[in-house]
Design goal:
The complex is a heterodimer of chains A (254) and B (313). Chain A is mainly alpha-helical and 254 residues long. Chain A has helices at residues 5-32, 60-66, 72-79, 115-118, 154-158, 188-192, 205-224, 227-245, and strands spanning 85-87, 99-101, 136-139, 166-168, 177-179, 200-203. Chain A is globular and about 85 Å long. The chains are: A mainly alpha (254), B mainly alpha (313).
Chain lengths: 254, 313
Amino acid sequence: MKITRRDFLKTSLITGAALTAGSGLAVFERYAFAEKEEFLGPLPDIDVGGIIRPPGALPERQFRSKCISCGVCVNVCHVMKYDAIAVAGVQDIRNFGAPYIKDMRDFPCGLCMECPKHCPTGALKKIEKENVAMGMALIDFGLCFGWNGDVCLSCSKACPLGAHVFDFYSGEWGNQPYINEKCVGCGLCVKYCPLGGSAIKVVTKRQYETFRSSYVSEFRQLLSMAHEERYAVVYGQNLPQIMARGRLVEREYR
Amino acid sequence: MNTDKDSQRSDSKDVIARSNSDEAISKDGISHSAQNNNRKMKLSKLRRFVLLGIIVLFLLQFLRIKVLVGGLTGSLAVWFVKLIDVFAYFESLIASMDFTITALFAVLPIAVIYLVFGRAFCGWVCPMDFLFEVVDKIRGDRQWTMDDRIKRISPKVGYVILFGLLVVSGLISIPFFTNYISHLTNFFRFLTGSVFIALNLPAEPAVLAFSGGMIFLLLGFEYFFPRLWCRVLCPVGKTYGLFNKISLLKLKFTEGECGECNLCENMCYMNVRITPYIDRPSLRDVNCIYCGRCVEGCETKGRLIKMKIGGLK
């Protein structure tokens, strides 16, 4: 039997297609049955409020009109070994193809500031670390170790801005960390929170404005609470939740 | 010297004699040039190596090697030079109505490259050219013979589409073509997405599906309407086609050797009418992608048609 070039091409194409489909299935399986942290995230009733842009992004509308979805920021982030940036999918058709920080629990932004430096369209603008406004990290006071009788400094140690952003209200109920409004929203604290499912959530700056007053008042109320009241809150509500999630000291950081 | 010329002439007569059927034309054209060009690498081979080289350079970014980072719509060369596709630049400019010096400096190197090489992007760098060639091979039977109705669609329609896309981008203030339809964006989005998912890094499977589907759609389109995308529709190619009018690279013709065998036109899959240009000094057609098939196909073994850069002879 003589194998013609066309036959060869056809066979190789079919083989290629089969291989692609096979590997695609394998990937799908991996995704569908991947182990996830099975807890509800922190602050479940607060929405992220849109999507978190890479650092240095222009205001939303301007950013969208400039971004051409070339993938430089995504790949720069990969080369810098942070892998934080992904491209938005079809569920949000207006933002389709534009970069965002997808998974802060495992892949937060490291604020290396390489992507704004290299964006060819100018949709990401080169700025100082401190002036980045990706979002705002919020501590769930009901889940945080530091607010419930422990001394845990994981978030403040992970923060690239450190004392610039973190305030501590140390007392008998723990070191009580508070992230002030200078937070840029990189999400490193989200990743390094040892609680299962993390106790910190990053929301967009615009979303934060809408519930800022209630969040701040909750914080003030906790600080000014009487001892018995606080005891009831910590032992009655918070600690059972925390115990259920467990302190995942063995969590594998990726 | 004389004998050499004579032998070549007899050779060419031979080709004309044998080239009565269309089938014979293309086959002879290929084998002919292969015999006579073994000292130089064949252009069609060379351009596949160029494409392979560029794709490999882009693939190196997944191994964290900073040679070419990004995709063909926008990229970063050696961690220093920002590059942006010319059409993408205009779309982004019109969508945002805001001029930035960053984007201008990114588009200038590309503009300079293609002021030298004209529309060579399509033939030498665009990955779709290769994929379309594979589709053409699979289709087989009507390989270079296009439907007459498709052939008759003027490439000028493409400029209307280009203008329309720019208007749409301005209206919805999103670079419409580059973000959703562009084969270049989707090709590299697909590449990045599949690598990221394989490495279990954050990526949207939906983006992967969309981009893969778009590429597949274009390949299907190519199967039924050969090269209609490249010749008429693709605005990226059309933009580079404008560079053809003033580029340094051009097809030049040596006078008085044409046997009028039409081999060059038969080889050209962009459907450029080459023969009318033969009495003129050079060819400046917007659809010429400098693939070199006419040079290879020419019965004079490329002595009549040559690719030249600048005024060099």
